[in-house]
Write a structure and sequence with these properties.
139 residues; 7 helices
Length: 139
């Protein structure tokens, strides 16, 4: 099972979208699943249940920050992830994604979780490539 489907499985087993994304990366993150669950617990249904920024996207950004070992802030990667997530999902705000006001669902929660995992995986690959390129400069 790939990481995105693992995250969806977590989502269907008493985890919010943020927790699902974080737990799907538990093998790479410096915390156990219980701690990751606690870390993501306030991001269900958009932070604080406000239907604001998608919890899955929040989970991806949190994971990127935890995995960032280049010594620079994760803001550039976060901005790129937000843009890529919006392109894939149609929005970044939970209420917009679920069509709360319009009745038109732009992206299901399962697909938001999949898209968040995808943008995180691509961001991590880009960070690794940049780190390798930087190391090669020093040779």
């Amino acid at each position: 099972m790939n990481r995105a489907e693992k995250a969806v499985e977590y989502k269907h087993n008493k985890n919010n979208c943020c927790q699902a994304v974080l737990k799907a990366f538990a093998d790479q993150l410096p915390f156990d699943e219980k701690t990751l669950g606690a870390l993501g617990s306030g991001f269900g249904n958009g932070m604080g249940c406000t239907e604001a920024t998608c919890g899955a996207l929040c989970g991806a950004v949190i994971a990127a920050g935890l995995l960032n070992d280049c010594g620079k802030p994760t803001t550039v990667q976060s901005k790129a992830m937000l843009k890529a997530f919006k392109e894939a999902s149609g929005a970044t705000v939970c209420a917009d994604l679920k069509g709360v006001k319009t009745g038109i669902v732009l992206c299901s929660c399962d697909d938001c979780v999949r898209n968040a995992v995808d943008v995180l995986e691509k961001s991590l690959a880009a960070m690794e490539s940049a780190k390798t390129a930087e190391a090669l400069k020093g040779l």
